[in-house]
Specification:
homodimer, 462 residues, alpha+beta, Beta Polymerase, domain 2, Poly(a)-polymerase, middle domain, Alpha-Beta Plaits, 16 helices, 15 strands, 39% helix, CCA_tRNA_nucleotrans_2 (chains A, B), CCA-adding_arc (chains A, B)
Chain lengths: 462, 462
């Protein structure tokens, strides 16, 4: 078994950026900042430029190529103008860029092989004066920059590489993992990567850290890290219970048997149709998938809607007796290499234990003793009213009937209006109306487009 | 719609015994009593004879042919001798009779077309001195004989005919209905048949009557009638919630739309195999039956065991995901004409909504945070230990695996030792070991032998 320090040293060699990579990034960032200042000069208002994020603080994982530049306008500038000027600067700096939307619209593009975000914000005095959430970023940057020395910065890079490797890095709403800011705060708070994993090994959620000791409220999340720049905010609010558990699991594994493996992203190859069929043979489940065009929205809008839809469908299936063994929302744009690539199709995928129910369903009436209700129940089902119903008969102290079941197959349900009514987000709802329903081996046709999430589904690991 | 009094008058004409029937019964009973006294004279101890039951009190339904004679021995006679002398007298009076067993063994036989029970008991001073439960019967007889006038006696006959008609008469442990004594006490307490059904119409169980106002304990039964001869006993203890509900249902129907129908026992014709198959087609369920030799015990021993076995099997099926829609214990000796005829075969019959499950089953482990349990769960399922298991993976805050399911078909379960282990009575357990399992259309072969309970199952009514 390798020694932990030896393992981390090898990982550090690989993931901590070399001086040449740092110099190159610094040069490109300076050039972009200069171009941004030139574009600002063409505006009728003043603004400044600040580089933020891990590339600003030297805490990026070698090979990451993200440069984040914030354009700070006066705190009094109204939102509409801020958006207009922000986009004007963005398009000027990144002529091939496109608009995306976080709190404000902003321009995203590439420059010399780097992914560049050019985001407008308000230059507020303190975090208490925030106009919108993005205004907070420069405060985060200042807080960390003042506290992370070179050793801690290297440990942040280790921690990020570890979280990426285990699939728990990223506060986007598909991943629901650890944000960069959260990772840096945890390394800072615990005093390094090894102290962090040693601590995480025995966490009992809810776990709370409050670096500045200034929390102004309580939080209902499994991990709470009170934002040092905002006493009302949990930096770990997006983190799912599963990703926290995943971090604990791999922290224990790393300490028990040090290895470079968890620092290597899995990058699963897509499953092909034959693989899917052989899993189905082995498992003898009935799979069902509702497939539809992915609405053209960013992942942070798409995924919460997909999850809500999946929950609704799973609830609907279970309620009608089509017992769900396991389910997952999927898109054809998943996998480390395709993140943010923009999904064309989405699928709500469920494996069922039961795909068919009888023609009749039990329906319990009131206790016979509850005279008024009992009489009205009995009369509404008596022989001459509904000859297709079995009963009413008496079971225990109640009337019971066996009446025609609404949905006897999973396909009937998934194609019905009832399935269309489950809680669906606005954009998904429109596309869902045009859904295709696949039941049984037909789901194999989802591979290879959905091959990566299918592999994660059929080869699940912590 | 017929007038209630007109209906009851016609029913009374049919069910209240005519003078000729009464005279004939009285003659035969007197002759049997005389023969009994002669047999007693051959014993080394003294005893007397008392006729008990409805034929003694003139409250039998016309056509019933039961004569119950109790042989009362001295209260000090020990049990063994009482049994020996009792059987000696019984066999002397009824040379073709056979022995049955209630509290003591006794002789049952026929004489001039009557079914005769010759039961030994102790002649105790008061009900408080009872040696065994049968000793109580003469007290019941004395209590009712002193209080039922001719009109009330006729109403008792009406009530019994009604309860027989709706299938709720008889305190045997198959029927779990109203005993004769309970029926007579209720008619006496409420003051007649019509007041009884008018009262029953709006009962809210638990309902309690205490004619002598001397209850010495509380009871947990839906209907409580405290025995006038024993303040610690509920005469309705055997009555099931279903039969009480059934009585309320038909009481309401009778008062709302008077008719002679409920006074006519249904006497269902046995279902044939084709009928069973067409119900299965219509319902699209999967039926399963466990069939075995009925142990050679009286119904009052058989039926509680069958019910316990059925409950155990239903619980076992549901627990393994073979969802039971409806189930029933059956014998090939059911139906009004065959009561007590001695079953040859018994069946635990269940209709399933689900008869097959996948090869894998979800198994939840502990939360990952519970370090010690979590680690031991993870290690016991890790890849290199069990390559056939899916996972362990993380779902929410827990480890989860999908491992091989123990029983994937209902037949596997029903034929397994696990099904043999469900709570079974001693005598049923032996026969159950040699069970046949029928699944699907094969259950149709149970008809016509089990045709009467099959009709009740597939044409259920209150």
């Amino acid at each position: 078994m390798d020694d932990l320090e030896a393992v981390l040293s090898r990982v550090r060699d690989r993931v901590v950026p070399e001086p040449a990579e740092r110099d190159h990034l610094r040069t490109v960032a300076a050039e972009l900042a200069e171009r941004t200042r030139a574009a600002i000069a063409d505006l009728p208002v003043d603004a400044d430029v600040v580089q933020v994020g891990s590339t600003a603080r030297g805490t990026w994982v070698s090979g990451d190529r993200d440069i984040d530049l914030f354009v700070r306008f006066d705190a009094d500038l109204d939102r509409e103008q801020l958006e207009e000027y922000g986009l004007a600067v963005g398009h000027a700096v990144l002529p091939d860029g496109h608009e995306e939307y976080a709190e404000h619209p902003y321009v995203k593009g590439t420059h010399e092989g780097f992914d560049v975000d050019l985001v407008p914000c308000h230059d507020v005095e303190t975090a208490g004066d925030l106009v919108s959430a993005v205004d907070r970023t420069p405060f985060h940057d200042a807080y960390l920059s003042a506290r992370l020395d070179d050793d801690l910065a290297d440990d942040v890079v280790l921690a990020k590489a570890f979280l990426k490797g285990i699939g728990a890095y990223g506060s986007d709403l598909r991943t629901e993992g650890f944000s960069g800011y959260l990772t840096e705060l945890l390394v800072l708070e615990l005093g390094g990567f090894v102290p962090l994993v040693e601590s995480a090994r025995s966490w009992h959620p809810p776990v709370e850290f409050d670096p500045e000791g200034h929390a102004e409220r309580t939080f209902d999340d499994p991990l709470v890290v009170v934002d040092p720049t905002d006493p009302t905010r949990n930096v770990a609010a997006v983190l799912s219970a599963a990703n926290l558990a995943r971090f604990q699991h791999y922290a224990r594994e790393l300490l028990a048997a040090p290895s470079e493996d968890p620092f290597e992203p899995a990058d699963p190859a897509p499953l092909d149709a034959g693989d899917v069929r052989s899993h189905l043979d082995r498992r003898n489940t009935t799979p069902a998938a509702v497939v539809f065009d992915a609405p053209d929205v960013v992942d942070d809008q798409l995924w919460p809607q997909l999850r809500r839809s999946l929950d609704g469908i799973v609830r609907g299936l279970n309620k009608r007796g089509f017992d769900v063994l396991r389910a997952r929302a999927m898109t054809d744009a998943e996998g480390p290499d395709r993140e943010g690539g923009g999904a064309k199709r989405a699928a709500l995928y469920a494996e069922l234990e039961v795909a068919e129910r009888p023609a009749v369903a039990r329906h319990e009436g009131p206790p016979v003793a509850v005279r008024k209700h009992a009489a009205s129940f009995y009369e509404s089902y008596a022989d001459d009213v509904d000859p297709e119903t079995y009963g009413p008969f008496i079971d225990g102290d109640r009337y019971v009937v066996e009446r025609e079941r609404e949905f006897t197959t999973v396909r009937e349900y998934l194609e019905s209006d009832a399935a269309g009514d489950v809680a669906l987000g606005a954009q998904v709802e429109r596309e869902f109306a045009e859904r295709d329903v696949l039941v049984g081996d037909a789901v194999a046709t989802l591979a290879p487009a959905f091959g990566v999430p299918l592999r994660e589904f059929y080869e699940p690991h912590p």
